[in-house]
Amino acid sequence: DAGITQSPRHKVTETGTPVTLRCHQTENHRYMYWYRQDPGHGLRLIHYSYGVKDTDKGEVSDGYSVSRSKTEDFLLTLESATSSQTSVYFCAIRDRESYEQYFGPGTRLTVT
Amino acid sequence: GESVGLHLPTLSVQEGDNSIINCAYSNSASDYFIWYKQESGKGPQFIIDIRSNMDKRQGQRVTVLLNKTVKHLSLQIAATQPGDSAVYFCAENRDDKIIFGKGTRLHILP
Which residues in chain B touch residue A45, judged by CB atoms under 8 angstroms apart? Predict the structure, then answer.
């Protein structure tokens, strides 16, 4: 997976609890992305980062926040998880000179 | 609203035949297009890309065609093999946001 890991890989949580997903890269790539994947919707961009402490919203950012305090880590936080946030979450990275993204293995989140 | 989409959700192709997966886009400002392959239980994998100033690009057994006039993108896979069975996504770059279409499942018939 091109030096990109996600943790946890699986999580079950209750509605209303906070959840943080971590994406870690060893490639020193500038850009990092968080997507969610649901049946019938493909991959939808939640947030992305174009550098340390530089982030921007994607298509479906409501209910999510992100932080990037260092190049290698991009955190996705659900402040108060809802059942509609049950999904598979993918992190991706890309180099500045290329639009080719490398994806992590995904995190399956279930909110009960 | 503007979106990247696909004409067919499922495509069945005989092994050995060529596959053509289509994609329509509506944002004429997009400058870069990418095709990804996703196998079951895995993250998407890059296949091939094309810049908006090109009409065609070839890779190993794959060709991407871009028709800007009708805002259409296609992925051609030559001599389709069982290992090509997957979901294929087109994606476009809009100001460093890489937006995906909904995907087409390619099913290989023996």
Answer: 97-100
**If DSSP codes are grouped into helix, strand and coil, which group holds residue A69?**
strand
Best CA proximity match to B46, nearest among A7, A98, A107: A98
Q: Is B60 on the interface with A (CB under 8 A)?
A: no
Residue B18 forms contact with A (CB below 8 Å): no
pLDDT in tens, A54-87: 999 999 999 999 999 999 999 999 999 999 999 9
Q: In this structure, how many other beta carbons lie within 10 angstroms of the beta carbon of residue B23? A: 26
- B72 interface with A at CB cutoff 8 Å: no
Q: Write out the DSSP string of B47-109.
A: EEEEETT-SEEE-SSEEEEEETTTTEEEEEESS--GGG-EEEEEEEEETTEEEE---EEEEEE
CA–CA separation, A62 and A97 (whole Å): 30
**Which stretches does DSSP call E strand in A8-72?**
10-13, 19-25, 31-38, 42-51, 54-57, 65-70
- pLDDT tens track for B21-70: 999 987 888 889 999 999 988 999 999 999 999 999 999 999 999 999 99
Query: CB-CB: which of B42, B98, B102 is closest to A101?
Result: B98
Quote the tokens at residue A89: 């979450």
Q: B32, B33, B46: which to substitute to probe chain A, counting the most A Cβ within 10 Å? A: B46
Smallest CA–CA separation between A81 and chain B, in Å? 23
- Which residues face A105 on adjacent strands? none
